Amino acid sequence: MSELLTTSEYRDIAGSLNFPTQAFINGQYVDALSGDTLPTLNPATGETIAQIAACNDDDVNIAVANGKAVFESGAWASLHPAERKKVMLRFADLIRKNSRELAVMESLESGKPIRECELTDLPETIQCIEWHAEATDKLYDQLSPSGNDAVGLIVREPLGVVACVLPWNFPLMMVAWKLGPALASGNSVVVKPAEQTSMTTLWLAALAIEAGIPAGVINVLTGYGHEAGKALGLHEDVQVVSFTGSTEIGRKFLEYSAKSNLKRIVLECGGKNPSVVLADADNLDKVAEQIVYAALWNMGQNCTANSRIIIHKDIKAELTEKIIKAMDQWTTGDPLDPANMLGAIVSQEQYDKVCHYLAKGKEEGATVLAGGDPIVAGKGLFIAPTLFDRVTPDMTIANEEIFGPVFAIMTAESDEHALEIANDTCYGLQASLYTSNVVKAQRYARKLQAGTVSVNCYAEGDITTPFGGYKLSGFGGRDNSLLAHDQYTETKTIWLDLSE
Ligand code: NAD
């Protein structure tokens, strides 16, 4: 675990950073061909940090052509898997060497608390690249059970140019989730980071070159979604888009695919995840801590944020009190102060959206038990952690993804009723279940409609377990674990006749 510094030491690092602002194509930082830029802001202060290249379809064409050329050259795709592994491990090492500066940069552009960047985002980013690197020379192809007169080989091949279109909430972790398996299988990658958070991804691309990943294998196209993102979705030479973001934009990628080359589309989308507390849950202090962590981590800007807290009526009063108490330690403020658990909301647009839901909750009759308002701090975008009670399934805040530090208690008449409320959503990404009965836990976990169910804790699993959603939360594949490699590879059958 990295030891945290003081706020003034983090400020010094912030002052010494070189911010990458150009796109990264074929191993070089370059301006967008149009010369257009977009501002990237520090949401904790409102200051403009830098102007970033705003790429469009002309830049996309160049990046994809370079990615395709290097793929066809075999410089990466045909490298011996053991060699690819070594280079990827060097890449992970370079991220580790620069992790403190990367953590500060990530905090500045996203508003995330530095303690999270240091203790979670950077370590998990490094671990993810290392894990997939290690898999590179340990994955075997298959032989079919086709008798003595034939050999059926089932081989996995990289796809070519892969596009990764990313959200702003975990910039480094999300790029690592995609880059790890895509690179391990030998693909070329074009990354489109979210417009709010491009800089750490741009830096990573330069570290990849330093590690020995050939130029053109990793390209980063910064810019707007409706320009650079759309052009990638429609490009005839992009073989797969691995997308993480909202369900609304995810749907667009399915349209882009249908209108172009039927490229594979993998979507990791939104969620409206429940914490379900059954009547026999024990250790309610721990349950309360986990519920608050699940709701507030990353200011609730998390696809697995547990924003619906469904509690059996028999324990509701006691648990509610403990939840309110557990919220005390979630201090909000300057993201570079390592004492703060919560930082700024990423952008004005997101801040306005969360404020809209605060108003909706009050308007529709929910009761505010904690928070309920923005925190006024200069031009910073801070919102007080907010807990609503007396929320009913028909209310807007019980149905729509808020993506802010706002969560809602709903009362269940029975354990079955709790399950019914939990599944009453168009999403199905994650659910947390609390019960002291392990048999019941197994039974309920199977009935919950979610890609991940954590029992007696809030968790998404780890790098070894697949991550993705049911219903509108996902489509077409999984991130993490070896299943992630399926996103970036194609299956080929090679049939050899042995008959005499
Ligand atoms: P978003 O959908 O607005 O944007 C995601 C990406 O798509 C960005 O890079 C954006 O530039 C691009 N984009 C936007 N419009 C586009 C268009 N018309 N064509 C092509 N690309 C376009 O999402 P966001 O606001 O950045 O992130 C928040 C969302 O991401 C939430 O819904 C959250 O639940 C989801 N998310 C899901 C996961 C998961 O693994 N399931 C993880 C993190 C975030």
Give your account of this protein's structure:
- There is one protein chain.
- The chain is α/β, with parallel strands linked by helices and 500 residues long.
- The protein folds into two domains: 7-269 and 473-492, 3-Layer(aba) Sandwich (Aldehyde Dehydrogenase, Chain A, domain 1); 273-462, Aldehyde Dehydrogenase, Chain A, domain 2 (3-Layer(aba) Sandwich).
- The protein contains 15 helices and 24 strands.
- It has helices at 7-16, 57-73, 81-97, 99-110, 114-135, 171-184, 199-211, 225-234, 247-259, 284-296, 313-326, 348-363, 396-399, 415-423, 438-447; strands at residues 23-25, 28-30, 37-41, 48-53, 142-143, 150-158, 161-165, 188-192, 218-220, 238-244, 264-268, 273-277, 306-312, 367-370, 374-377, 380-383, 386-389, 406-412, 427-428, 430-434, 452-455, 470-471, 474-475, 489-497.
- The protein has a seven-stranded mixed sheet with strand order 14-17-18-13-12-20-21, sandwiched between helices.
- The longest helix is centred in the N-terminal third of the chain and has 22 residues, at 114-135.
- The relative contact order is 0.14.
- The structure holds nicotinamide-adenine-dinucleotide.
- Nicotinamide-adenine-dinucleotide (NAD) binds at residues 165-169, 192, 194-195, 225-226, 229-230, 233, 244-246, 249, 252, 268-271, 303, 401, 403, 429, 469.
